Amino acid sequence: MMSLPKIYTCFLESVYKLLSSIYSQLWLLLVPPLFVFFFIKNMCLTEVLGKCFGLKDDDHRNKQIIRVKGTVVLMKKNKLDLTDYGASLLDRVHELFGNGVCLQLISSDNADKDNEMRGKVGKEAYLEEWVNKITSLTAGLSEFHVTFEWDESIGIPGAFFIKNFHHSEFFLKTLILEDVPGSGPIHFVCNSWIYPSKHYKYPRIFFSNQSYLTSNTPEALLKYREDELKILRGDGAGELQSWDRVYDYALYNDLGTDRPILGNSTELPYPRRGRTGRKPDKKDPNYETRLFILNLNIYIPRDEKFSQLKFSDFLAYAVKALGQVVRPEIKAIFDKTPNEFDSFDDVLHLYEGYQGRPVNQTGDSHLLSSNWSLNLEFIKELFRSDGEKPLKFPKPEVIQANEFAWRTDEEFGREMLAGVNPVSIRLLQEFPPTSKLDTTLYGDHTSSITKEHIGKNLNGITVNEALEKNKLFILDHHDELIPYLNRINATGTKTYATRTILYLQEDGTLKPLAIELSLVHPDGEIHGAINKVYSPVQEGVEGSIWQLAKAYAAVNDSGVHQLISHWLYTHAVIEPFVIATNRQLSVLHPIFKLLQPHFRDTMHINALARHILINAGGFVERTVFPEKYAMELSATIYKGWNFTEQSLPQNLLKRGIAVQDPSKPHGLRLLIEDYPYAVDGLEIWSAIEKWVYEYCSFYYPTDDLIQGDTELQSWWEDLRTKGHSDLKDEPWWPKMQTLSELTQSCTIIIWIASALHAAVNFGMYAYAGYLPNRPTVSRRFMPEIGDPEYVELETNPDAVFLKTITSQLQTLLGISLIEALSKHSADEIYLGQRDCPDYWTKDATPLDAFKRFGEKLVHIENKILEMNNAEEYKNRFGPVKIPYTLLCPYPLPSDPLGLTGRGIPNSTSL
């Protein structure tokens, strides 16, 4: 007698064979009964009799019914890159029993008086060929046909309902009506996940690609437009589920109960994030419950999540990067100095292609040839797709041409203009540098740098002359760190607040003159700071001290880059714009169509960041010097954020890097002419600004249209008073009353989401992938005469340097994170590109303007490449031989996927 498992197995095999047989013999077995079933199910008795006996009711005698053919492009549910076979099978079963995908066209011309003047709705039509159409085995798109019976007297379709009666969701990309009488083809760009209808109170609706201001929306579509926005705003209650489409605001109360809540506070203000509605934490109900660390199913509106392809890339990058930590950490366990690099050679061995001294074949290295290590490499190889060597990091560009050029003073200064944080340097306008800290709380923080410290390196001119000629610049991270410095140094960090003064030489390069390292006075903050000043020395112990001083300055700059320039000023500040746009601007609104591509994936990457990167104990706290005070520090910096100063021209003027000059192409004259970020950035900024002006002026030829646009005004009010509510009363907010204000605001939004983010993100691995160049943590204070470390500087200065900066584990985790964040995904859409380039809008004038925008970007890219090849622009290449390509709009066709160091994605998506 067969056992129960065997019976169960046989039963499943029989069911499978039966279903296979049914599927292969579908025409013989199922088509006739299903035809009758659908025929009767979808037609009333009068229609059945009419079809059978040639009868027509009075209504049909007066209507002219035409058949409108449509093509639907969609992607079935899948898991990562593979089709979800279980969902696909169940969907086919649902289809067989009459539960298909139903569409109904909606009139844009004729309103139904009995339905609050909403457009009349046509007959139901179902997607064809779902059961017998073979679709892609991977996450690919498929075409299906649908035939509508459309009453010409209703008018032109302007929208459609769709109801999914299947078991599973699918991604609806487009619907194209091929030939509508009186209109021709009509395009519906959807790009949305459609869940089973049981999850929705109302059927999903999509509108055609015709743009309408609120005031000129056809009456038949107006109520539908309003209904959709109400759904997207939600009711502010309950835990949101994956099928919900609610855009709402929440505080940063999801980072962990042992971190302060950010937002709704004068002390710790913050931009708002997307609401999830998760239950309050049991420990403190003011906080939101956190998910298990490996649970990445964080609520954001489904359409804001990564595509299947991008999520696959993201996970693959993460797995590869973390896999690269394993080998050196195993080796470190048996090292005589655990968790320390003993030499730069040890660091360089992390990277593929390094041809330094061979690894010692005795002792601890013997463990690395064990079978376990080989198995790890084998597992790693299974996941590889980019040709890199298993368990090795790719060699960062900063050490490709020369492994020690990063240590030169010229490169140290150049990276402030063309590195990963080119947005902090400013003109020094008074000497000595002063502080803006409240003296009643922090005492006197005037710099201790004197004319004697810097005068000897000014190439023959005095300090006053250098100031008058705008030759002195400063990288100042003093004031922002002093209020937190004692608390930060009570952790594992031992660091300083730094000021770095640089001199602009005749060849356009920056020469560092002095670095000031400051600690809070030991008698208390009210007593000011204890400062020490270091000047450039190239040899001996003093030369090693100078290298350490530059490292402390780099630690400050790395932390400010990651927490402020990158996270706060691109990721965090843009999320409220994403939310407000979806809450208040209909998809029919031209400004929604303008901005929506620049919000792609932002909410998802931000949610993942809160889950694993910036949360309590996350990657950032483990690898960046403020540790547990990282996010709190960023909140204090947000107090000074000014939306209008995010305009590149205004930012350059504020930092004193540029002065107004109407004779110059962009109305600005750069004081550092060879400033790659500013030079290229102004070209990109101007191209965006021109495109936005041409687009907005088409829809708003007069300012009164802006003032009277209720959706536009609600959008700006929502953004200001809810999304950035802690700064809602600041006087710098544009009033959104004129075309100039609208153009500038949209240009700033696009600039932040695209070019600014590209400039501070995609060069991270090239420069910071080699941590000695951009250390993120310092673990010891500067050696003093008499210290053992000072003596060691004479015999082994590299060891002292490496024991002072980021530890081995921190380095490995940091490099892993930086590598993953620096890579482009396979489905990236770049500035000047659209998902549906030919029909994202029906209006010809904006389409033509967008085409010119793309052509301008190509011209800018060619100009950038020409400058990179010109010898006179020393800051575009530098001692490390890295051309500045971070603001090249597009990667080269020959570039491998990932670490291209060029290309401006439309959105802040990594």
UniProtKB/TrEMBL annotation:
Q: Which Pfam families does this chain map to?
A: Lipoxygenase, PLAT
Q: Which UniProt keywords apply?
A: Dioxygenase, Fatty acid biosynthesis, Fatty acid metabolism, Iron, Lipid biosynthesis, Lipid metabolism, Membrane, Metal-binding, Oxidoreductase, Oxylipin biosynthesis, Transmembrane, Transmembrane helix
Names of the cofactor(s): Fe cation
Transcription regulation as a keyword of this entry, yes or no, is no
What range(s) does the Lipoxygenase domain occupy?
A: 211-910
Q: InterPro entries annotated for this entry? A: LipOase, LipOase_C, LipOase_C_sf, LipOase_CS, LipOase_plant, Lipoxy_PLAT/LH2, Lipoxygenase_dom_3, PLAT/LH2_dom
According to its UniProt entry, the protein's GO biological process terms are: fatty acid biosynthetic process; lipid oxidation; oxylipin biosynthetic process
Q: What class of enzyme is it?
A: oxidoreductase
- EC code(s) of this entry: 1.13.11.-
Transmembrane regions: 21-40
Q: Which residues form the signal peptide?
A: none
Please give the residue ranges the record annotates as the region Disordered.
263-284
Which pathway or pathways does this protein act in?
Lipid metabolism; oxylipin biosynthesis
Q: Which Gene3D superfamilies match?
A: 3.10.450.60, Lipoxygenase-1, Domain 2, Lipoxygenase-1, Domain 3, Lipoxygenase-1, Domain 5, PLAT/LH2 domain
Enumerate the spans annotated as PLAT domain.
Answer: 83-208
The UniProt GO MF terms for this protein read: metal ion binding; oxidoreductase activity, acting on single donors with incorporation of molecular oxygen, incorporation of two atoms of oxygen
Q: Which domain of life is it from?
A: Eukaryota
Which SUPFAM superfamilies would you find in this protein's record? Answer: Lipase/lipooxygenase domain (PLAT/LH2 domain) (SSF49723), Lipoxigenase (SSF48484)
Query: What is the role of the protein in this entry?
Result: Plant lipoxygenase may be involved in a number of diverse aspects of plant physiology including growth and development, pest resistance, and senescence or responses to wounding.
The similarity comment for this entry is: Belongs to the lipoxygenase family.
Output this protein's name: Lipoxygenase
Q: Taxonomically, what lineage is the organism? A: Eukaryota, Viridiplantae, Streptophyta, Embryophyta, Tracheophyta
